[in-house]
Amino acid sequence: MTTNASPASSGRQRRDLAVQYLLADITLLSAEELALAQGFAGVNDSFRAYLTNVGISPVPHRRGYFDPQHVRARLNSVQGLFDAGVAAVETQPVSLVEQRRARRGQK
Questions:
Q1: Domain ranges of the chain
Q2: CA–CA distance, 66 with 57 (Å, rounded to integer)
């Protein structure tokens, strides 16, 4: 004998699954998780100084939580790694006039 879920609970389950799916990309790192991932013993003064030097800041109004995408972007920037899309724009061929202006320091 199979029991069918009521329409209300079925709708609630679908809504809950939809919310979980939407929130899957919205994850934050706690300061403790980030400190351990970066090789620090915990959240201490040296870890905070490291964050300041690298330019990693917490999520606004959420002190102690960090956006993983922001952290990755800052680490890539510090290491000299760049997004392929950004690099492709910078490596487009430059016209002869633009090359001459760059050599002469003109706009």
A1: 28-104
A2: 7
